[in-house]
Specification:
The chain is an alpha/beta fold and 318 residues long. It contains seven helices and nine strands. The longest helix has 19 residues.
Length: 318
Amino acid sequence: MIMSLPSSCLTSSSVFEYGNYKTVVLFKGSQDDDSSSSSSPPPKPLLIGTPSEGGDFPVLLLLHGFMMKHTFYSQLIRHIASHGFIVVAPQLYTLASTDATGDINAAAAITDWLAKGSLEDLLPSNVHPMLEKVALSGHSRGGKAAFALALSKVASSALKLSALIGIDPVDGSTSGQSTPPVLTGVPDSLNLDGMPVMVIGSGLGATKKNLVTCPCAPKGVNHDNFYKECQAPAWYFLVKDYGHMDMLDDETKGITGMMTSMMCKNGKSREPMRKFVSGVLVAFLRAYLMGDDSDLIAIRDGEEVEIPVEFDAVDFRP
């Protein structure tokens, strides 16, 4: 059922701009961190973006990309939170391996922790997470991990998931070289029991940065394959002239942060792609968690005049 949101939930005129909620970004240590003061600390360190004023808000779990830090998504997280969502971004690992099994198990452990109601203890007073409205998302290999968890490969979510989003998801470097594999090579084969899915792709992701690097989202294992293998309902947005890392913060520090610019073919700046990813995530979450699909349909039909990017492709399978 589609309905209008109550006035207390209304945001700014465009989902691509910051919403009306004041936000705060919190950093919380894990159960292995002696500095954690929580009685029930999370299994992994968390970056949490949340409205700072009281209310009941849906939850988005965001899994970072390969070798990334969850802090690299702070601007995207704050944008989404400003529209009335609680975004939980775990640091899945410190040292990356080519096997994503650990990523999936870590994400499952976070859902176990969420299911126990422990998140509310870390939030501002009178801010309450709506655990019956939880969406799962991931970028790059985090997108693969999100799909794997939603499909109960390796591990299962302790919470019922309401929606799934792949942000330029990648299932390994080449077809058939991924552990554990998610893609099957068969259209409509990813059975999510009717869960709505959105896949966002980067137009430059399959392009090499230079002669010595590999594409960060190679053909055969990228957004195109994930979308084709999803069962309906499924949404697809392929963004023209932007790259695999262009939804990250403007500044990503450290050696890992430098690599985000050196390894992948990028657009002219990150802000337009980040605004689009943030905004279309808000529109998708409002459609399937809050019952208002007006923004999502406007983006699909080109009626949202403030879209900050151009598309190579847009598709929807109801």
